[in-house]
Recover the amino acids of this structure.
């Protein structure tokens, strides 16, 4: 797991952010996309008016920053700076994660056309897609555009090939899953990698029990678990259940707001979330 904590920055972070960018600009002959580092006041205004920055922290110290954006369905980032090895990588991956959570498949960046930078981003999975000469600080300089195609993040039915991943994440015996698709079981996948597991199980009388979602390290806190719960509940509602229940656990407690936005209710003084479903009766049944 990364030793860096990445979070959105706000105007209160402007002093640390400005200091970090000033250090980066001073150490570079070609910092894009701006010729001079933004001031503390400028950064505060930018964040208050919609520009999105992420900060990387280590032991409560700000050690990295990046600005992220979205334009016509493509994510982008710039003003990437760090003072700790690995912080830049953590920030780029955080930009990618947010893009992926929003359903975006492409991330782009523009940078000085230097072999050192090209090699760094190539190691992160970015390939050059264009070069151009632009005016910068009174001179003409070469600019490289790089791009990475992200894996598709989705929640889907379990497949035979998911058996080992389900066993590792959920502690289940892989053998039944190796035999084929088990009704009511779903996985979250990041491209070809299974990163989450959930199950919807018929308990009789129109009631479905939704198993708490399990996610691989690094995928928590992104709303993917709430998406998994909804996918399982949708399955239950189209297979004869009128009510779904999800246990209140250490994993599901932080999901309360996301689940309530999706129609779930936390029982007063209870130990579970409850959701009323449309319930279209089907002859087939859930997994045991």
């Amino acid at each position: 797991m990364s030793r860096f904590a990445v979070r959105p920055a706000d105007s209160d972070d402007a002093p640390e952010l400005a200091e970090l960018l000033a250090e980066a600009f001073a150490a570079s002959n070609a910092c894009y996309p701006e010729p001079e580092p933004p001031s503390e006041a400028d950064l505060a205004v930018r964040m208050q008016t919609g520009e999105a920055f992420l900060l990387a922290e280590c032991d409560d110290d700000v050690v990295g920053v990046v600005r992220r954006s979205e334009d016509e369905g493509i994510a982008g980032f710039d003003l990437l700076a760090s003072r700790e090895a690995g912080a830049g990588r953590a920030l780029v991956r955080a930009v990618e994660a947010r893009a992926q959570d929003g359903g975006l498949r492409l991330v782009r960046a523009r940078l000085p056309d230097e072999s050192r930078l090209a090699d760094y981003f190539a190691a992160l999975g970015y390939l050059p897609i264009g070069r151009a000469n632009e005016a910068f600080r009174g001179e003409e300089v070469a600019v490289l555009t790089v791009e990475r195609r992200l894996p598709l993040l989705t929640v889907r039915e379990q497949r035979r090939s998911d058996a080992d991943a389900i066993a590792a994440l959920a502690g289940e015996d892989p053998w039944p899953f190796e035999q084929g698709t088990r009704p009511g079981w779903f996985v979250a996948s990041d491209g070809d990698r299974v990163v989450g597991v959930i199950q919807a199980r018929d308990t009789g009388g129109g009631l479905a029990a939704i198993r708490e979602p399990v996610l691989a390290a690094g995928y928590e806190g992104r709303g993917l678990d709430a998406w998994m719960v909804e996918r399982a509940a949708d399955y239950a509602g189209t297979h004869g259940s009128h009510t779904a229940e999800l246990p209140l656990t250490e994993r599901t407690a932080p999901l309360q707001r996301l689940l309530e936005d999706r129609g779930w209710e936390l029982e007063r003084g209870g130990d579970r979330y409850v959701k009323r479903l449309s319930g279209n009766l089907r002859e087939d049944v859930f997994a045991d």
Q: What stands out?
A: The chain has two domains: 5-149, 153-276. Confidence is low (pLDDT under 50) at residues 279-288. The domain at 153-276 is CATH 3.40.630.30 (Aminopeptidase).
